[in-house]
Automatic annotation (TrEMBL):
Top-level taxon of origin: Bacteria
Name of the featured protein: Formate-dependent nitrite reductase complex subunit NrfF
Species assigned in the record: Streptomyces tateyamensis
Amino acid sequence: MERRTVVRCAEGHVFSTSTFPMRNLGVGRLGPGRLIRCPQCGRLRSSVPADLGALSEGQLAQASRSA
Ligand SMILES: [Zn+2]
């Protein structure tokens, strides 16, 4: 089963990705986010891990569908 990370792009879109390199998320190296292709922007966006506790159920549902 694939482990996914829920992330939020710079435009505020929430989606899940299996490619977020959590282990390499060093502090301050390349900034707080990673460039990930946002399915809603349709282009690479600086994205950061979403705070799951701050997301609504709707946002979480949307994120899980956007894989
Ligand atoms: Zn986006």
